[in-house]
Amino acid sequence: MRRGHAERQRDCQSEYVTLVTPAANRERQLLQTNNLYRRLFRTALLIRLVEERVIELYPSDRIQSPVHLSIGQEAVAVGVCDALKSDDLVFATYRSHGFYVAKGGPLNAMFAELYGRLGGISKGKAGSMHLSAPEVGLMGSSAVVASTIPHAVGAALSFKRTGSSRVAVAVFGDGATEEGVYHESLNFASLTKVPVLFICEDNGLAVHSFRHVRQAYRLPEHAATFGIESRRVEEGWDMLAVRQATLDALAVVRTGKPFVLEIATGRYKEHVGVGDDFHFGYRSADSIDAWKARDPLILDRTLVEELTPEIEREIAAAVDFAERSPAPGRTELLTDVI
Ligand SMILES: Cc1ncc(C[n+]2csc(CCOP(=O)(O)OP(=O)(O)O)c2C)c(N)n1
Ligand SMILES: [Mg+2]
Fold this sequence. Notes:
The chain has 338 residues and is an alpha/beta fold. The protein has a single domain, classed as 3-Layer(aba) Sandwich (Rossmann fold), CATH 3.40.50.970. The chain contains 14 helices and 8 strands. The model is unreliable at 1-20 (pLDDT under 50).
């Protein structure tokens, strides 16, 4: 049954009230002094401030590429990547600024890539939708929905064959699970027993279409039909919860079994571009209020204020690098493309 605006509004308000009780405040203060939480928080804030800089720069047309922002989804990238070892490999999507940053991709080369400049990670040929940083394990990302899922399975197969202890991670959206290749990948991974972790970022949307009108299955039950263990995490705003769930899943994967981890999350901005999309009428602004009411990057003002100046300097240096990086000339047109 569809719930009305007033009902949803009440829910959001009561969730918010719960969060600002003295006990919740005390818990947040404790977390702020905790090194692990600070590390995760800093990376999440870096991702958000990077994307907010992208929003500011976009009208200038210096960013030569469509952008799919992950604002609201940062905790997934941060929690997952923090649980990985540095030589584990991630294969991601066009919405992967967060995974690039969380895996340790260099910021200078990221901004230069968005600018289409030679200093970019792919000399400006890849843009925002195809970010990669193989030296830190972000093997690739793609505009073609679900296309990197089998790449992760292939990498996992090579780890198994070479006796490596590394794991491969496939990151994809809820919409990607409707592609045939997702099902083929699960089947193959289950049959071959390879160390691959499937991470579904469930923001409930594929462009403007809600998951419940697209899918007649639930991911955990679906994974079970392939004999694959799975778990759904509802607290996708909580970096510590995502990290712990990933560590638990990795404990299974490192024994040579695939695992599906579905993480609920919230996309604040429009599907593609730097604006909001509430004027399209398919969702209202209050549909993300519940996420915002729990978002540590909104709630933890003390840490935000403490960490922002230093992060802003890092971002400014990366933007400056991109601005000074030369544009590729005609001689670059056919290099690195075959
Ligand atoms: C194979 C393929 N089909 C369709 C598209 C068009 N398309 C781009 S994004 C998208 C929605 C994907 O949704 P989801 O996987 O949930 O990722 P999200 O954008 O929510 O992160 C679609 C259908 C595409 N890029 N590739
Ligand atoms: Mg989605």
